[in-house]
User: Fold this.
Amino acid sequence: MAIYVMLTSLTDEGRRTVKNNPERIKEVNKEVDAMGAKVLSQYALLGPYDFVNILEAPDNETISKVALNLGARGTLQTMTMAAIGVDEFAAGLKKK
Assistant:
């Protein structure tokens, strides 16, 4: 399974939703699971992004579906990046 970093920014509607129902965050995580990805860890942030999520998914198509479906709701915007473990990255550099 591949690892992805998803940075999310809440819209005004998203901020209202989280303020009024903080448990909605965990509900969305269950929806992400149902779409074929898994939230491995999640942190609230200070700064230009509201959350950083570390996800696991079988492929780029699955994580793209997750990002599109979440963004289509109008409550958040995402930036998603593939992540490679440092050991795996270093091993790949040694291959010729």
